[in-house]
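Weekly sync, protein design subgroup
Attendees: M.S., D.O., the rotation student, P.L. (late)

Item 1: inverse folding check
M.S. brought a backbone from last month's batch and wanted to see whether the design step gives back something sensible before we order anything. D.O. pointed out we never logged the input encoding, so this time it goes straight into the notes. Structure tokens as presented (341 positions):
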């Protein structure tokens, strides 16, 4: 269902330490840890002896010692010590996974290690740039198919109904978005001109009255989406507007990286970068607390959807114009997965 020859976020970099961290990624049980040189490593989370999860063991040097009979594995998964005997059977060892630390996350390649090319990690430079202030909330495990998150971020019309008190505002549903697409990306964008800004943006940018607002999102298959959002003074927005000349400006990106765990569960990594009010503690609170609460409004929807899908797997499913982007995105994921068969 999901391509395995792709990079997925396994953890926030800050979560990977000299302690084993267990995750299930695309159905694979994985244990993550840091080697003595600080580089992350990932092994199959199952001992080759009697199948105890290695995440119940201990980090030793650059590897892991199983917590049951003490077999020791290096960071490549090779078994390098078996207590009580000097020889090591040739089939003793566990699988290792390519991992790369980039943009505050540790990325894992669940597929063929020979194909793991780090240049294919999506470019998320806003997460690590001096002009952008990055807010990095904790990962949230969700009981839903990660594609429901992709549907969610690609259809901004839900903002009006799910996030009315924060980032919603009526104008969004009145404007048809532009959708453009390539081999492995789809981008949806809208301008809403001369309308009341969403309450949260009005507060963050001290807007009174109307504003020009943009809302765009770009999905990179199979698992990264970046929402671009903001408001400027009326007259500075639109495709030919000069947002830099606006007296007031709220400009942010929200990065969404849902990693499939099973078919009906995922890890939701997300973060916000803003290009305004870097040192304003009240604005920082808006992002680290209020914006996370906005995302929580989605979590309720996503898990409730999955619950119904589990109970009634083949209901009537109507699609309309605003579903086009998610339709394209799901098609890309399917094609990538299909090409691996
Ligand atoms: S189960 Fe790991 S050493 Fe026995
Ligand atoms: Fe949302």
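Designed sequence read out in the meeting:
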């Amino acid at each position: 269902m999901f391509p395995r020859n792709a990079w997925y976020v396994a953890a926030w970099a800050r979560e990977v330490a000299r302690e084993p961290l267990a995750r299930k990624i695309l159905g694979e049980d994985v244990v993550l840890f840091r080697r003595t040189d600080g580089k992350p490593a990932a092994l199959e989370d199952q001992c080759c002896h009697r199948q105890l999860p290695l995440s119940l063991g201990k980090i030793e040097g650059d590897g892991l010692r199983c917590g049951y009979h003490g077999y020791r594995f290096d960071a490549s998964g090779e078994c390098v010590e078996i207590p009580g005997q000097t020889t090591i059977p040739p089939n003793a060892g566990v699988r290792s996974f390519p991992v790369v630390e980039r943009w505050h996350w540790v990325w894992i390649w669940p597929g063929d290690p020979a194909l793991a090319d780090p240049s294919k990690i999506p470019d998320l430079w806003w997460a690590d740039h001096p002009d952008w202030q990055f807010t990095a909330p904790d990962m949230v495990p969700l009981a839903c198919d990660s594609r429901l998150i992709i549907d969610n971020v690609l259809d901004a019309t839900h903002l009006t109904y799910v996030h009315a008190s924060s980032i919603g505002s009526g104008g969004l549903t009145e404007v048809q978005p532009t959708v453009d697409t390539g081999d492995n990306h789809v981008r949806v964008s809208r301008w809403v001109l001369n309308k009341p800004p969403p309450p949260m943006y009005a507060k963050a940018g001290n807007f009174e009255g109307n504003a020009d607002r943009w809302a765009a999102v770009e999905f990179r298959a199979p698992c990264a989406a970046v929402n671009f959002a903001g408001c400027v003074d009326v007259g500075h927005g639109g495709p030919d507007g000069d947002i830099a000349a606006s007296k007031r400006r709220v400009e942010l990106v929200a990065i969404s990286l849902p990693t499939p765990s099973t078919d009906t569960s995922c890890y939701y990594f997300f973060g916000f970068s803003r290009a305004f009010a870097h040192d304003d503690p009240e604005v920082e609170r808006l992002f680290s607390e209020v914006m996370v609460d906005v995302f929580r409004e989605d979590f309720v929807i996503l898990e409730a959807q999955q619950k119904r899908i589990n109970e009634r797997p083949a209901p009537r499913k109507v699609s309309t114009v605003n579903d086009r982007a998610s339709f394209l995105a799901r098609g890309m994921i399917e094609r990538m997965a299909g090409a691996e068969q």
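Discussion: The pocket of fe (ii) ion (ligand 2) is lined by residues 152, 158, 162-163, 298 (CB under 6 Å). The chain has a mean pLDDT of 95.
Action: P.L. to compare against the previous round before Friday.
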